[in-house]
Amino acid sequence: MSMFKEMLKSGESLFRDTVVLDYDFQPKVLQYRESEQKQFATAIRPLLQNHNGRNVFVYGAPGIGKTTACKHVLRELEEETDDIIPIYVNCWKENTTFKIFSKICADLGFKFLQNKKTSELFALIRSKLNKNGAVFVFDEVDKLEDTDFLYTILEDIYRKTIFLITNYRDSYSEFDERIRSRLAPEFLFFPPYNEAEITGILKQRREYAFVQNCWEEDAFKEITERCAETKDTRIGLYLMREAGNLAEEKSSRKITLEHVAQATKKVLDFHIKPKEGLDEELQQVLDFVKDHSGKKIGDVYSAYTNDGGEMSYKSFRRRMEKLNEAKFIKMEKISGKEGNSTIINANKKLTEF
């Protein structure tokens, strides 16, 4: 066979639609989250009957479909009725009451907001939403700097459902008691996808994103296995896109194991953020891990308190989980005679920063 038959011609592409590989892409059919979507819909249902809705606190690891499942239900709600207004806010971007109210006002179509005070912004929101009902989704609530907006919404919006989404279950305990008592949410845990589910999700995306038969099956299998190790579908989507790009750069008609191996080398650069981007507390915790790598989390915390650290164990562990999420460290659960424990290891790639 001529080697040229294996090469892409000018203008040819392995991709049909790269948007499908974006993590925020909303597939028409969302696999393996039917029961969670049903719980979202059940919480909203009272609004359709002119009653107040239920509130839900949603938690689980990154990259397992919390946001996607919630947005999927909001989209179906929009198709079903104009009476209930869906509102989505990412609290990483809008992390204060003023920013949140500004975002909601803009999404509701209000203009000339620049010189308005927080109370004036909320008056606009109330005037609009109290004529209808509303479903509020506040994503990444562990990034909030204040939660006054929640108290105000709970008190002054008549018919609403509130979804709070976070990676951390104990974020709820950090809310003010006034908010917790009024919110009284149901708790919805999103379990990680198993390997078969991850394979199904990535196959669905592959079908829409790439031309037929351009993947060598062992190359695709390698991606699903690596994605299953992290239990984060974002890694799989990133590797698929990168491997496809690398194959195109070499004018290859097939995406091979070699392309996946090269993409995998890049994934750490994608997932690890520069150390300088960490806040002071995270830097401090990371320094302790580097000095006590390979030890149990309790021993690392003891070293921290013995050195004068004042953070509670719960807060310390939360910061460990954030460092683990960003791949600065690796938290490994092990079982022994004394029960289960967590070993902390610093990522060796840190030495490159």
Task: Write a concise synopsis of the structure shown.
The protein has helices spanning 34-48, 66-80, 97-107, 118-129, 148-156, 177-183, 195-209, 217-230, 233-249, 257-271, 280-291, 297-306, 313-325; strands at residues 56-59, 84-90, 133-139, 160-166, 186-189, 295-296, 329-336, 339-346.
Task: Describe the structure using short key phrases.
353 residues, alpha/beta, Helicase, Ruva Protein, domain 3, Rossmann fold, Arc Repressor Mutant, subunit A, 3 domains, 5-stranded parallel beta sheet, 13% strand
Protein architecture, described:
There is one protein chain. By secondary structure, the chain is α/β, with parallel strands linked by helices. The chain has 3 domains: 11-22 and 193-271, Helicase, Ruva Protein, domain 3; 34-189, Rossmann fold (3-Layer(aba) Sandwich), CATH 3.40.50.300; 275-352, Arc Repressor Mutant, subunit A (Orthogonal Bundle), CATH 1.10.10.10. It has 13 helices and 8 strands. The strands form 2 sheets. The chain has a 5-stranded parallel beta sheet, with helices on both faces. Helix 9 (233-249) packs across helix 10. The longest helix is centred in the C-terminal third of the chain and has 17 residues, at 233-249. The protein is globular and about 60 Å long.
Gyration radius from CA atoms, angstroms? 23 Å
The tally of helices reads: 13
First and last CA, distance: 47 Å
Estimated share of beta-strand residues: 5-15%
Task: Supply the CATH class of the largest domain.
Answer: Alpha Beta
The helical percent reads: 40-55%
Tally of strands: 8
CATH architecture group name of the largest domain? 3-Layer(aba) Sandwich
Low-pLDDT segments: none
- Strands side by side in the biggest sheet: 2-3-4-1-5
Say which CATH homologous superfamily of the largest domain is assigned. P-loop containing nucleotide triphosphate hydrolases
Number of structurally distinct domains: 3
Shape: globular
What's the mean pLDDT score? 88
SSE sequence, one letter per element: HEHEHHEHEHEHHHHHEHHEE
Give a short account of the largest sheet. 5 strands, parallel
- Class per helix and strand makeup: alpha/beta
